[in-house]
Every structure is written in structure tokens, then in C-alpha cells.
Amino acid sequence: MRIVFFSYGTRGDTQPQVAMAQGLKERGFEVRVAAPENHRHFVEKTGIEYAPLFGNSQDILESEEGQRWLRTGNVNAFMKEVAAISAKIDPQIYANALEATEGADLIVGGTLIEEASNTLAEYRKVPLVYGHTMPVEATGAHPAPFVTSAPLPFGWLNRATWALFRMAAKPVHGKSLAAFRAQLGLAPRATGYGLAADHQVPVLQLWSPHVLEHPGDAGLLTRTTGYVKLQASVRQRLGEGTPAPELVKWLGEGPAPIYVGFGSMPMPTLEQFAQGLTALARELGTRFVMCGGWNDASVAQRFAGAELFIVKAVDHSWLFPKCAAVVHHGGAGSTAASLDAGVPTVICSYFADQPFWGDRVKKLGVGTSFPATRLTPQRLSAALREVLTPEVKARAAALGEKLRAEDGTRAAVDALECIAGGERGATAVAA
Fold first, then answer.
1. Cβ(100)–Cβ(34) below 8 Å
2. Do 265 and 238 meet the contact criterion of CB atoms below 8 Å apart?
3. What share of the chain is helix, strand, coil (3-state, %, to 5)?
4. Taking the CB of residue 47, how many other CB atoms lie within 10 A of it?
């Protein structure tokens, strides 16, 4: 039996798909992960069969349009920018996706490509499951992350934000998807995010209920699994199981450092930022590990030393538990890793679900959050002083213990195996 996973976005979007695929492969399933070209090396190195989807998600994020919508805080402006980019690349992505589903017996759609996954499952006449790393289905328990991160007092107000989100998101792929459906000979159909209940599609919410509770109004086909993590064997294949000797040596030469990294997000001018971190290290009596992510960290290397270590990339699951605190952009994967490590978290959010996870961190009392547009040495200093207290450290440590006791990967793989085996009813994914 062949199961095809779809992902489009950053590594944080693709990594859970790879982890679930690996779990199913170990149980005897044939698996394939379809993702943009810049994820080919990552997927193939894990030993999972890769299928290309047109485009390079890193190039898109770094383009003029991508940078513009990364910085906007307006959901309508964001959706318009995404729609402009999607109109150029959707037809080729759909053509690749059609090829990737040849011989599929089950399709697992990621958050950013769920609409195409839905159409392809209908065309191939196979079951479909959504694997979401952020809330997408309407609920009265909390607002839609793309609309607001602020908690609202009434369930009906929360539901109203989901209606706004669906309305804003509908035009993103509407025309291209309608053309694709016509090409496949499928009848017109309501499309858009958050329609799993309408289409009776099982949903795996790939986060911990200790961080965001399973909604009481969620349908029987929705399950909150716990965080999905890469297996240790997969990290070894990626070369992430063995840290750089220079970093290990530096860590042993002083107190636990503070990690700062923003993944795929555009960082401030790295030279100025690195220089500011060295000054902040002296002010706070601490040290920093700065990760450049998709940014070119080599330009700031001259500021590295006893107070600052600069890396291009690093295994979060290995490094974060060795840190005093973690500062990041609030992506779902980075948030999961920092909370799992049991250390205080500071989220400097850019867009999408990042402010939402920042709000969760604050509500749980394990860190703080503010928009990346307000990031200054003074603001970061205040945030770190706020979270490096015995009370916050204790709450973060306690939450970390709960998360490490979960096995979200197994729960997600169990649910997928159950569905693949033909038991697509409420018992397959009921929470």
C-alpha cells in the first residue's frame, strides 16, 4: 500500500510529514513525500522516496513579493500577495502533484497544499487525511491564527474570525484550482481552507493538547496527536545526530547560552544584530548561540567569540535543552522544540500562526512574545529578564516533562495506519 504525503513551505512544514512517512515505512508501507525542490535533499537523505513539486519555497520567501507579505500584519494584504505568487506557480505544482499520486492508496495533505490534496484524492478515488501543524479548522475555542492571536471572550466571536479567514483565503487558489478540476473532469466544488468537516476528511492536529487543548467542538474525525518528531535514526542519516565539535567545545567553556534564530524568516542586518548580541551578553552576564537559518551568517562571523557562537544550522532537539532560554520566530516546529526542551521561550513573531503560538507561550506562563518589528536590543533584554526567573523556568521545565512523555509520532502513525487499513470512521481518529 502506497501513502503519499504533500508539503509546501519551510522545513517545519515538511519535517512532520517525513517523520510520519518514516513511521509508516517501518511498518511496511510504501511512502512518498512530495515537496518543493529545495526540500529534495532533506527528504532523500532521510531515506524516504521524494517527488518534486514545482518551485523553491526559499526563493519564494526571499523574493520581493515574499518579503513583502512576510512583513505585513494585514491578513487581506497577505492573502493577496500569496494569491499573486500562487497564480504563477500553481499549474505546474498541480501537474507535479498529479504525477506524484500515481498509484496512491492514501493521500496526506499538508497545511499549505490541502486544497490540491483534496482534489487529487477525489480524482484518484482514495482516502484523504489532513496533517496540520497549525489550527485550520473552525472552532469556538480560539480565534483563527491568521486573523488575530488575541483571545476572544465568546465562542461565536472566535467562530466569526474563522469565517473571515475562509473568506480571505478563498481567492488564493480559487481560479487555478477550478481550472485544474476542470482539466481532470471533476465538477466544480467549494474549495478553501477549513472544509474538512464539510468534506468528511479526517484531521490530525500535530501539536500537543498540553499546549493547545483539543477543541471541545471538534468533530469525531479530528484528533490532536501530540507533537510529531523526527526519529533519532533519521537525524543520524541527516548528519544532525553529531554536533559540530567546535560548538560542543564552546558550550563546555561557560554557562548555558541563550539561543537566537529565526529560521526561514528575514533577520535584521546580521552584522549589526551579532554586534548587539555581544553587547547584550555583557549586559546580562550570559552567552548567545546565533543561528543564521536561511540568512548568510558568515557576514557576522567576525563577532564570534567567548560571548557569541554563530552557526548556519543546528539540531534544535540537541541544542535547546542545553540552553538557558530560546529566542525564535514562533514557527510551529521551533515552538514545539523549545517547549519540549523545557526552557523559557521568547517569540519574535512575523506573520501567520507565529503570533498565535506566541500568545500560547505567554498564556502558559513559559515565556513571552512580541512582533519582530519591535525587536531591538532593549526589547530583547527586557524579554529575557522577564523569562529568566525561577517561576517561568519552573513552569517551562514542567511543561517540557509533559511533552517528552507524549509520543505524537506514534499516535499520528497509528491513526494513519488505521485509516489506510480501511477503518475510516470515527474510531480511526477520535481523540
1. yes
2. no
3. 50, 15, 35
4. 14
Per CATH, 2-227+407-429 and 242-405 having the same topology is answered: yes
Q: Architecture of domain 242-405 in CATH? A: 3-Layer(aba) Sandwich (3.40)
Global pTM exceeds 0.85:
yes
Coil, helix or strand for 169?
helix
Identity of the amino acid at 105 = D
Domain coordinates in residue numbering, the chain: 2-227+407-429, 242-405
Contacts of 10 (CB under 8 A, 6+ apart): 57, 61, 263, 264, 331
Between vectors from CA 358 to CA 10 and to CA 356, what angle results, nearest 5°? Answer: 75
| pLDDT score recorded for residue 42 | 92
Specify burial of residue 241 (Cβ count, 10 A radius: 0-12, 13-18, 19+): middle
Q: Domain 2-227+407-429 carries which CATH code?
A: 3.40.50.2000
| Residues in the chain, pLDDT under 70 | 57-78, 191-192, 241, 264-268, 293-296, 422-431
